[in-house]
Amino acid sequence: MKRLAVLFALIMTLIELPGCSFTGLSAQNLMSPPKTNADQQAIYQLMQGGKTDVTFIYPRSGEYRSAIIMRDFTGDGVEDAIGFHSLEDGGVEVIFLMKSGEEWSRVSAYRNIATQVDRVCFGALPGGGEAVFIGWGSTAGATSRTAVVNAYLYDGSGYVYEHSLGNYGELSLTDFNGDGANELFIIDKSLPPEEEGAEPISARARLFTFEEGAPLEAAAAEADNTVSNYSSVVFGALNAHTMGVVVDGATADGGMTTQVFLFDGERLENRPRGVNGEAEESPYARPSTTQFYTRDINGDGYIELPAVTRLPGISEDVELDSTSYMVEWHALTQQGESRLVLRALMNPRENYWFRLPYPLLGRISAANDVERRTVTYTEVITNEDGSQLLGGKLFSVRAFTRAAWESRGEFSGYSMLASQGDVVYGIQVTTKNDQDRRCIDEIVESFQLLSE
Q1: At a CB cut-off of 8 Å and minimum separation 6, what does 200 contact?
Q2: 110, 94 Cβ separation under 8 angstroms
Q3: Average pLDDT over residues 175-193
Q4: Alpha carbons 23 and 33: distance in angstroms, whole number
């Protein structure tokens, strides 16, 4: 009896966590929900219908991962419910439920042939209320074009309407004009021709607004046809006057590139210009050995874009990685032109970066010992004929476990730079050159972790 009492107390604690609904106890194929209160029992019974059980389906990405999402999509101040479950004959059904008084009822239900739910998000509508966006299917796979997104809009009189917005590889809620109402940005990828002799389908980005309870395609623009899979999408400030959507993507050869989409109220524009031209390569194209994503690198509140240059003095037979490159982070001006913000050396694997002082530009190389978690930075000497060779070691940065640091870190000639969890970062300065040591002082001052 004591064990049962403890188990019951644990169940009640998990269920009462904010935003959990059934998630606190859910498994991918949960067959029956916890019988905790009248609301949850009523929701489950309406989803169950005449069946003996329900197999829940869980969104695989995004902020909302529960098979039953509690959300006031009707805008009446009372939480409604959106539930997903698999169908016996294949596919998934989404059910919209609302509460009136003490009674729950099915508002609308829609079936989709997809066997997965990619994500669910909610956008503010002009005049109040919310649109529900559901990505059906998966954005993974050979073409990364297997998902479709639909908008679901409550009409105010007891019905939710479904609107198909088409295929997508990535999406983002936006608010370009700052009026508090969201647009929906979706971007797709290029597809090979469906039959011999036909033209391939070009990659395309589209922006939807909402008027009179229905979606409207407000603008569209070509996207980069070399992208085979999208890595991230960010909407935010590019400068004090410009908002934009920045999309990172992987190309067919394993490299990466970045696109920026701007909207002036009428046109959606893709930057950099000429990104789809065969003769032009994006300045933000980077090789497969780099893993640098768009971010606000310097904390100024604006999104910066990475461009890379291989460090000098690295032998052709060396296996390159992210530490083998200088990263130039660029911001966009109000005119949409690129502006250099800072130069950095980065180690995403070990979660750190630092500014590259100007006197070391073109004079520094790096060698990464992954096993020892140590990057050694070496002077590069340029001869009169332009040839380059490696000089003496400047400094090394090493990631220690906390136990290793406490036992030998400081005694092995390293000084602490930062620490996070079980990792301590140390630097060992080797050079005796006064100018280079001043540069290393700047590096110590600028040393930061990529994620805190």
Answers
A1: 190, 191, 192, 193, 225
A2: yes
A3: 91
A4: 10
Decide if 450 contacts 353 (C-beta within 8 A): yes
According to DSSP, the residues that pair with 261 across neighbouring strands are 245, 270
- Closest residue by Cα to residue 70 from 31, 98, 100: 98
What span, in angstroms and rounded, lies between the C-alpha atoms of 19 and 55? 21
Burial 434-448 (b: 16+ CB within 10 A, else e): eebeebbebbbeebb
Supply 12's token pair.
């009640």
pLDDT at 175: 97
Task: Could you list the beta-strand ranges (E) of 191-241.
Answer: 204-211, 214-222, 227-239
> 366 with 376: CB under 8 angstroms?
yes
**Confidence (pLDDT) at 271:** 87
Kindly calculate the radius of gyration of the chain based on its CA atoms and give it in whole angstroms: 27
* 14-54 per-position pLDDT tens digit: 444 433 333 333 343 343 444 457 888 899 889 988 777 88
CA dist 290 and 332 (Å) reads 22
**For 432, left (φ over 0), alpha (ψ -120 to 50), or beta?**
alpha
- Name the phi and psi angles at 284, rounded to 5: -100, 10
Q: Is the dihedral of CA 335, 181, 69, 148 positive or negative?
A: negative
Residues 114 and 136: beta-carbon distance below 8 Å: yes
**Contact present, 383 and 361 (Cβ < 8 Å):** no
Angstrom distance (rounded) from CA 15 to CA 24 = 6
Residue 446 structure tokens: 């600028």
Would you state the torsion angle of the CA atoms of residues 287, 60, 138, 184, taken in this order, to the nearest 10 degrees? -80
Q: Give the torsion sign (CA, 299, 282, 190, 174).
A: positive
User: In this predicted structure, what is the pLDDT of residue 199?
Assistant: 78
CA atoms within 13 Å, Cβ hemisphere of 115: 3
φ and ψ of 437, to 5 deg: -65, -35
pTM score, whole prediction: 0.84
The secondary structure of the chain in percent helix, strand, coil, rounded to multiples of 5, reads 15, 45, 40
Distance (Å, whole) CA 378 – CA 154: 63
H-type alpha helices, 248-353: none
- Please count the other Cβ atoms lying within 10 Å of the Cβ belonging to residue 231: 16
User: How many helices (H) and strands (E) would you count in the chain?
Assistant: 4, 26
> For the segment 214-270, what is each residue's pLDDT rounded down to a tens digit?
999 999 999 998 898 898 999 999 999 999 999 999 988 889 999 999 999 999 999
Q: Where are the beta strands (DSSP E) in 125-198?
A: 130-136, 147-154, 160-168, 170-174, 183-187
What average pLDDT does this structure show over 273-301?
82
- Mean pLDDT, the chain, whole residue set: 87
